[in-house]
Specification:
With 285 residues, the protein is an alpha+beta fold. The chain has 5 helices and 15 strands. Strands 2, 3, 4, 8 and 9 form a 5-stranded antiparallel sheet that branches. The longest helix has 17 residues, at 8-24. The two termini are 37 Å apart.
């Protein structure tokens, strides 16, 4: 599907709007609308570690308007390379919507574009008859660990040894995934699923829901060791917990799956529902 030509100026102007959307939307989190698009429709980019690669990579985003979050209508999306001049035709591809395991109205859309050049990529999303301009930054290399590489074996906070992290879990009540340290679990002969998320301080407010969903999908994956790691050292600082620093993470939430030898085999970030979690876990075992 091809969208009529759009100017690069419109794309670049949209990138400033994304920052506004990211700070405003949590304030209207209770005003969920499944299908009514409303005015001021925009895209909230949730992917945090896009990098130049010849392979397709997961791109995740949400929709919102003055009515609140929007989840339900089909969305197609496409991008053009950096430094594209003049007007261009954008090839649009369909996205997948994931809603199960996420708050009502806050499902997320996932696409797999090829982003092979670093820089700012102009993009456009088509929602029914609405066109949304957006822009994403693609880095030269990823910051987070990638599938196929060895997982860090740095320890993670546990009930027995908090590593100075307080609290070790900001979920209420505390989740049960803090009994085994990653230093003991990774490479010990059993697959591991580790979620980096802070329910109490998550800027996008997806961390709490994804942790709850992870707890709900453990049944059926009894051979996997599940670990949750909080992001911050405590609730009064922006200093990162030592495990987060060891993994080199600059955002949250992240879910990694690690095989029995200690090699990362899957990773998703930003927001993810039950469907994507189960896919990663099923591939792990």
């Amino acid at each position: 599907m091809v969208q009529p030509a759009i100017s690069r100026r419109a794309f670049l102007a949209a990138s400033g709007g994304l920052a506004i959307a990211a700070t405003v939307w949590p304030e209207i989190a209770g005003a969920h609308e499944e299908h009514k698009l409303g005015k001021g429709l925009g895209a909230l980019v949730l992917s945090s570690d896009l990098y130049a690669s010849p392979e397709p990579q997961r791109f995740v985003f949400g929709l919102g308007s003055k009515r609140g979050y929007v989840s339900g209508p089909p969305v197609s999306i496409g991008f053009v390379p950096p430094e594209t001049t003049g007007k261009v035709d954008v090839t649009l591809d369909p996205t997948r919507l994931y809603k199960a395991g996420l708050p009502k109205g806050r499902g997320v859309y996932v696409a797999e574009p090829v982003l092979d050049i670093p820089g700012v990529w102009p993009g456009v999303a088509l929602v029914k008859d609405r066109k949304i301009d957006l822009a994403i930054e693609v880095k030269e290399a990823p910051d987070a660990p990638q599938p196929g590489t060895a997982a860090s074996r740095a320890p993670s906070p546990t009930v027995a040894d908090t590593l100075g992290v307080k609290p070790i879990c900001t979920r209420q009540p505390r989740c049960p995934l803090h009994t085994v340290s990653l230093s003991e679990a990774i490479g010990a002969g059993t697959p591991v699923a580790v979620l980096f998320a802070t329910p109490a301080r998550c800027q996008s407010q997806y961390c709490g829901p994804v942790l709850d969903t992870l707890l709900s999908v453990r049944d059926g994956h009894e051979d996997v060791t599940f670990v949750h790691v909080e992001i911050y050292l405590n609730n009064k600082t922006v200093e990162l917990a030592p495990t987060v620093q060891a993994w080199g993470l600059l955002s949250e939430p992240w879910l990694f799956t690690v095989d029995e030898t200690g090699t990362i085999v899957g990773a998703i970030d930003g927001a993810f529902g039950r469907g994507e979690m189960v896919q990663l876990l099923d591939a792990l075992v």
